[in-house]
Amino acid sequence: MPTVRFNSDISDDQRRAALYSGELFVYSPIPASLAFIAFAREIISSAFPGLDPETAQYEMPVEEYARRLAELKPIFIHHRESKRHVRNIVEALGCDSSETYFEVPKMRSSTSDGYLTAGIAYAWHPHRDTWYSAPPCQINWWIPIFELIPGNAMAFHPRYWSEPINNSSAGYNYYEWNAQHRGGHLIQYIKEDPRPLPKATQSIELDPLIELNCPPGGVILFSAAQLHSSMPNNSGRTRFSIDFRTANRGDLKTREGAANIDSACTGTALREFVRAADLEPLPEDIVTMYEDGTESRGAAVYKPK
């Protein structure tokens, strides 16, 4: 069972090394994260005027709900204020913003009772982010926007930290994914999701699992190599959360990170990472270290419409 550290005051260098060995970190809300969820709540409320966003799913047809999410989420993802909040959080929790690069933050939603589990509100099956072309030193940051209800959080499956899983990641190329499977067309996926999302191709045991709960604005950190999933939501309330991913430039240059035990995907997401200090992209000489000759198969960088 991996160690879970609460409000650890170790350095970022030490924390990254621990994350690469499978440890999990949880932090209480801090002013920077509380400001971020306040900003997120404003945007969510604008999409559901006069309604409680956590129960709005019961007030409209699922097609209308998906349409509103499809308008809401890109606004949050690509808003300059979202990037500013990410910088404030990583700095507040000890990262060097001149060495820390991040991908745009995402807003996630998990509706209750199977209302919408595909497309724009996909309910994540057990997976590693490394199956989706994440670099081995990627660290995931996860923040709940509203109060979590027990049984309605994110689950980690510790047995598989060091145990390989047969999976379909060999069929995933990041550049093809950018060109074919991202964007507004997700709104059409209401009942099922036909996208070739890498999954386990063998039976896996989900128990024992670790469910980490924290207050709104709390921060959970974990390696991209951790097997994790969305717990089935039967709470009667939609869960909204924020996640973003970081990578340290020094670790990228020296190829530090968690061991790759079962990922066979191609391409790299690193062209979409920007420096926390000034939003400059990663130097090309670092990106090319992670290229594999598949750059012409799609879009090297996703360009939202």
Architecture overview:
Strand 1, helix 1 (12-20) and strand 2 form a beta-alpha-beta unit. It contains 7 helices and 11 strands. The radius of gyration is 18 Å and the shape is globular. Helices cover 24% and strands 15% of the residues. The mean pLDDT is 94. The strands form 2 sheets. Strands 1, 2, 3, 4, 5, 8, 10 and 11 form an 8-stranded mixed beta sheet that branches. Strands 7-6-9 form a 3-stranded antiparallel beta sheet, with no helix packed on it. It is α+β, with helices and mostly antiparallel strands and 305 residues long. The protein has one domain (4-297): Jelly Rolls (Sandwich).
Show the helix and strand layout.
Elements: E1 4-6, H1 12-20, E2 24-27, H2 31-47, H3 62-78, H4 80-92, E3 100-102, E4 106-110, E5 139-144, E6 154-156, H5 174-180, E7 210-212, E8 219-223, E9 228-230, E10 239-248, H6 249-254, E11 274-275, H7 284-287
Parallel strand pairs: 1-2
Antiparallel strand pairs: 2-8, 3-10, 3-11, 4-10, 5-8, 5-10, 6-7, 6-9
Helix pairs in contact: 2-3, 2-4
